[in-house]
Structures are given as structure tokens and as C-alpha cells.
Amino acid sequence: MARALRPVVALMLLASILFVADGVLDHNFAGGPILDEYHGVGWTSYVFAFVNLLIALAVARGSERTLMGRIALSGFFMVERPLTAFILGPKPPESIVIHFVTALVELVILLGALRVWRLGRSVVPGDMEALFSLETTTPLPPPEPVAARPAPTAIGAGTSWRLGVLTLALAAVLVTDGLVAGFVPGGRAWDVSGDSSGWIVYLFAVVVLVVATRAVHGGSVALRLLLTLALIFFIERAFSPFALKVIDPVQVGLHGLAAFIALALALAAASAIRGDASRSAASARHSSPAA
After folding, report:
1. Nearest to 121 by CA among 101, 149, 102, 98
2. What angle do CA 66, 45, 99 make, to 5 degrees?
3. How far is CA 109 from the centre of its chain?
4. First vs last Cα of the chain: how many Å apart?
């Protein structure tokens, strides 16, 4: 278990370094009082770095509750980092790159921490804290036997590739739409309503990519969530040009292309869900005792 936990802790330390680097770059670019930069929240990168360092030390000492809190924090940073790369005002290109690299690191931390936590669920509760600790040298007793249950079935390689490619294509079209609309550093104003809300396509892209990282491995909940998101994006992309009165032919074309890809993604996710249900039913029939 310690072998599985060490990379997660190392990535947490890397994330702290990236937060500090982002704060330094932003401060050098803004060149003003640190408490006034980027609408008064520029200094939070240093706070994130400090808090992340404390959490990494707590997780390394074997705190399961802290590990669960870090999983939730990773989900927050995966959304916060890409958004704050743009919505707070112009940033240097190096800072934007660090924002997205940090989001990717947080995704790996999330997946690694979930893996460690699931491994920890297989041991008796009394040994949980010792199992998570990187400092323990005492061999742990073997886990208590649990009732056998059917192994989860994974989707086929072809289906997994189809979901991944469609998701990447949808995210790419969404980001392109945001860039074409002028939502770039130093571009048009960002807001939450009307024509100024077009930046939300960046959030759409991040969310669908995060969900797809689980769906391509056959997670039933992730597949259903991916199906729901694809249908929502299909409706939103198909009708938002009329609601927002988009007249630029390039943007209209990007909306239509995104709607088409979202529909294809929804169909692929629905097919994967049906296939998973069929495999589960077949597995249950084979595992049931003969009459």
C-alpha cells in the first residue's frame, strides 16, 4: 500500500510547487500589490500551495480522512485551475500553461488517491490507519476473507476507444468555439449571462473530459453520467445559436458540429451501457447454481 501511496504524495508536493510558480508568474506579470492582483484573489495560489503541503504531510502520516478530503479537493482544483487561467484577467502564457498542467496533475492525484482508498477498503478497519501510513514497517495481517462477488466487467477496447475519441473531439470543438468567440486573455468581457457567457464552453470541455476518464474504463455510473452530459450538450449546442442570436457562420458551424459529436457520443455511451448490462446478466446466469 505504501508503494501505491508514495506517488500520490509526490504528486501533491509537485502540485504545491506548481501553485507557487503560478503565484510568482502572476505577480511578476501584474506588478502590483499582491493583495490587489486579479480582483484581490491572486494571492490564493500561495494559500493553495501551503494547504496542499499540509495535506500531503497528513496523508503521508496515514490519515484516511485527509486522503478523502484531498480527493474532493482534487475535483475542485480540476475545475478551478482551467477557469482561473482566463476569467480573472490577462495572464502570461507560462501561467496559463501551469494552470492546465496543475489540472492534469490533480486528475492523476484524484485517480491515484481513489485507487489507494479502494485498496484500503479491503482490510479490517482497525488496520486502516497503519495501512495508509508511509512510515509503518510492521507487516500487516492478511485481510479478512469477504464474500465472493462477481468481478466488474469492462467495456470492449473498441467501445472504449470510440468513447475516448468522441470525447476528445467534442472537447476540442468546444474549446475552439470559445477561442473563435474571443474568450481569450485580453479579449472580450467574461460574464455569466448573455453573449458574455460563451466562456462556459471551457467548463463544458473540462467536465466531459473528467467524466470520460472513468467512463472509458467501464464504470456504470460514469457511463450514465457521460450519456446525460452528451444529451445536455447536444440540446445546448443545437439551440444556443438561436437563443444567443449567433450570426457568425463559423460559430454556427462549430455549434452544429459539437451537437453532432455530442449526439454520437450519447449513442456510443448508450451502446456501452446496454453491452455492460448484457454482460452482467450473462455473468449472473453462469454464476448461479444449476437447477
Report:
1. 149
2. 95
3. 10
4. 42
Give 32's DSSP letter: S
pTM for this predicted structure: 0.48
Cα 16 to Cα 23: distance, rounded to the nearest angstrom: 11
Q: How far is residue 245 from each of residues 194, 239, 240, 242, measured CA to CA in Å?
A: 10, 10, 8, 5
Task: Give the Cα separation of 275 and 165 in Å (integer).
Answer: 19
The residue with cell 478497519 is 125
Q: Which residue has the higher pLDDT, 147 or 111?
A: 111
Burial (CB < 10 A; 0-12, 13-18, 19+), residue 156, is middle
pLDDT at 148 (0 to 100): 45
Binned at pLDDT 50, 70 and 90, residue 142 comes out as low
50 pLDDT higher than 60: yes
Q: What share of the chain is helix, strand, coil (3-state, %, to 5)?
A: 70, 0, 30
Sheet strands (E) in the chain: none
- Cβ contacts of residue 94 below 8 Å, gap of 6+? 25
In one-letter notation, the amino acid at residue 253 is: G
* All cell numbers assigned to 148: 465472493
100 closest CA partner among 115, 86, 114: 86
Residue 241 has pLDDT above 80, yes or no: no
Location of C-alpha cell 467501445? 159
Determine the Cα–Cα distance for residues 96 and 21; give it in Å rounded to an integer. Answer: 11
Rg (CA), the chain: 22
Distance of CA 218 to the CA centre of its chain: 16
DSSP letters of 139-156?
PPPPPPP----PPPPPPP
Which residue has cell 498542467? 101
Average pLDDT on 141-166 reads 66
Q: Is 173 exposed, middle or buried (0-12, 13-18, 19+ CB in 10 A)?
A: buried
